[in-house]
Amino acid sequence: MIALALDPVVQVSLVTAGSTVGVALLGIAAEFMRRQAKAISAVAEHAQEARDQVANTHDTNLRDDLDSVMHRIDRVLAGQALHGEALSRQGEEIAGLRQDVAHERRERLAVAERLDDHMAATTA
User: Which pLDDT score, from 0 to 100, does residue 8 have?
Assistant: First the structure.
């Protein structure tokens, strides 16, 4: 076996095979690194897009802005409650006025009927 290792044909074959395997491994490693670099580049690009969309570009804090909006909405709701109460009172007042007008109409019709009866009795 040692004699075969010293044979120049065997040595050339071993060097050639080793070189071929080495070049193939380097090619595979280079392709793997290229794909990894491409994937890392895509991730970096997506991270930058996300950062651009969530970056705070104004002077106030978003939470403070939301708290302010919520406070204003609470004030609007309180105002609407007051308007609702006032509208309810107006509805009650209108219902009372309708009753008064209906009562006045009944009384006016009763007086008109008595007057018609009286006039009919005096002219007959």
Answer: 81
